[in-house]
Design goal:
Helix content is 41%, strand content 15%. The longest helix is centred in the last third of the chain and has 22 residues. Helix 17 crosses helix 18. By secondary structure, it is an alpha/beta fold. The strands form five sheets. An eight-stranded parallel β-barrel has the order 7-8-9-10-13-14-16-17, surrounded by five helices. The chain has a five-stranded antiparallel beta sheet with strand order 4-3-6-2-5.
């Protein structure tokens, strides 16, 4: 394989100014063949030196360097460029790994209905990473089952649970927080929040105290997942005074604890969520992430927290190149979601996994969100192989156009019942009423007083069941599968073509995670050399999938 240079560095016409220093070492370590170069580049724990020897560009991972171009050491060769070691454990922010007890700065983000399953969290945890279990869309009883499963592990691993903002389901956030506090779940991923909520603040400040040295200790930690700067500012700020006072008045915390809570951020760690699956604002990563880092720096200076604020990155991370780009932009850690959903450990069906494995980058669409339907909030979903996005949008259009079920024209009602719902509206309402009698009776009172709200509850029946059909693999409702998915899934599929990852049954979450980590480190190494004018011809210049065994031999 060959090396090529840009127009400013045309080989072999090198002048003294063309090189950056001198290399001195055993010439027997210099390699110029493709296999030898690949081995040196792939050994991330050692540096790589690009050297000019007898008019040929060679690489070595041994030797000494001198950068004094005015004095050439004896037996030295021109140094054209070099790359430092790219150790996987050092990717991201070291303090993040230290604070959370991780080997790698890598998170499996939460996906609702248990799609980010206990099995994913267990596998990631056993390999030095962190997995969040998707509690959104599940009953408190079902969430507790997952908690008990994690607590019963013979060999405990680090894990967390999701806490999703639920403004339309009164009492749900409180019930989930009660569970987390009862079972001492010390880490949550807060997602889809538009503002602070009292349950979230209650979780964060419960048990806050000072140690013998006067340091503030917070047993419960929050990692926020945010798409908007104004929301991020609320997470990086201390809990609102009014909420702290409410907690004092209700006896949850003391006045002294409230004063301590006013000196800590709601979340020390925050994920800038770019164009992701599920709840997203489709923000471009290259503009969102630097803005979040600038916000972090400003608020750290303003509040002078004793602990560092940190910004990780999620949304669009589906290939080593995208992971490397996030790290190059200063990501403290990586968060991966959509790609994990297609792994065999995820809590979804084989049918949904196959659909995800066939998705392209353009095979996504925005659709009304079931949990925030009335507010017009949308989620990003898979559109290839399913008509959910189009049908959900039709429901929202009807909701906006008419004030009640009774005002819907007969033709539209017939379409709803026969094509979309495959059930009569009367039967749907009967089942919906039974559901809310158990979960939240106040919704029925509101529906009685407001026919428009009754319509929303009926439409949310479809929006709520569609992801469950996907998770269970309900074959006769396949066209209605709601599968949350971002463009990262298509990018991963394109990157995986021709490799063992092309088949869905070969996608194991740790294999995928280690490929993204190892591949990002290799991409960063190639970028270092590229920025010094050294460009490798393919396949040396590209990063392809490896087996887990291959990666472990290299690291």
């Amino acid at each position: 394989m060959s090396l090529s240079f840009n127009s400013k560095l045309i080989w072999p016409s090198f002048s003294q100014q063309a090189h950056t220093g001198w290399w001195k070492g055993p010439v027997t370590t210099l390699v110029s063949d493709g296999a030898g170069i690949a081995d040196l580049l792939g050994d991330l724990n050692r540096p790589v030196f690009a050297v000019l020897k007898d008019g040929e560009i060679c690489l070595s991972n041994q030797g000494e360097l001198s950068f004094d171009l005015t004095a050439r050491p004896a037996a030295s060769l021109p140094l054209l460029g070099f790359a430092a070691p790219a150790i996987l454990e050092k990717l991201g922010d070291a303090s993040f790994c230290q604070d959370h007890g991780l080997k790698y700065a890598y998170i499996g983000g939460s996906m609702a209905h248990g799609i980010s399953s206990p099995e994913i969290a267990i596998e990631l945890g056993r390999n030095g990473m962190l997995g969040f279990i998707g509690a959104a869309g599940q009953s408190p009883a079902r969430v507790e089952q997952s908690i008990l499963k994690m607590k019963s592990l013979a060999e405990p691993v680090l894990y967390g649970f999701n806490l999703i903002h639920s403004p339309n389901e009164k009492g749900l956030e409180d019930a989930i927080v009660d569970l987390y506090l009862k079972h001492e779940i010390r880490l949550v991923e807060a997602s889809a929040f538009l503002a602070m909520s009292l349950p979230l603040v209650r979780y964060r400040v419960t048990g806050i105290h000072e140690d013998a040295q006067g340091n503030i200790i917070t047993p419960n930690k929050v990692i926020a997942k945010v798409s908007r700067v104004e929301v991020a500012a609320k997470f990086f700020a201390p809990p609102p005074d009014k909420m702290l006072q409410k907690l004092v008045d209700s006896g949850v915390i003391t006045e002294h604890q409230a004063k301590l809570a006013a000196r800590i951020p709601v979340a020390q760690d925050l994920t800038s969520e770019a164009d992701s699956g599920g709840h997203t604002d489709n923000r471009p990563a290259v503009s969102l992430h630097p803005t979040m880092i600038a916000l972090k720096n400003r608020l750290q200076a303003e509040y002078k927290y004793p602990m560092p604020l940190r910004v990780g990155f999620g949304g669009g991370t589906g290939t080593p190149a995208s992971a490397a780009a996030a790290l190059a932009m200063g990501a403290a850690y990586l968060v991966v979601g959509s790609v994990h959903q297609a792994c065999i450990e995820s809590g979804t069906s084989d049918a949904a996994r196959l659909m995800l494995a066939n998705a392209g980058q353009a095979d996504t669409a925005m659709a009304p969100a079931g949990d925030m339907f009335e507010m017009g909030v949308t989620v990003q979903v898979l559109k290839r192989g399913t008509m959910f996005a189009m049908r959900a949008q039709k429901l929202y259009d009807i909701y906006r156009r008419y004030d009640s079920i009774e005002s819907i024209p007969a033709a539209d009602r017939q379409t709803l019942e026969k094509t979309i719902f495959q059930e009569t509206i009367d039967n749907i309402w009967a089942g919906t009423a039974d559901f809310f009698r158990q979960r939240d009776p106040s919704q029925l009172d509101k529906a009685t007083a407001d026919p428009h709200h009754k319509m929303a509850l009926i439409f949310r029946w479809y929006l709520g069941l569609s992801p469950r059909w996907a998770v269970s693999g309900e074959e006769n409702r396949k066209v209605d599968f709601q599968v949350w998915c971002g463009p990262a899934m298509g990018a991963f599929n394109e990157w995986a073509k021709g490799s063992h990852f092309e088949k869905p049954e070969n996608r194991k979450v740790v294999d995928v995670a280690m490929n993204l980590l190892y591949g990002s480190a290799l991409e960063l190494r190639l970028t270092q050399l590229r920025n010094q004018g050294i460009n490798f011809a393919d396949p040396l210049g590209s990063v392809g999938p490896l087996t887990l065994e291959q990666i472990r031999k290299l690291i």
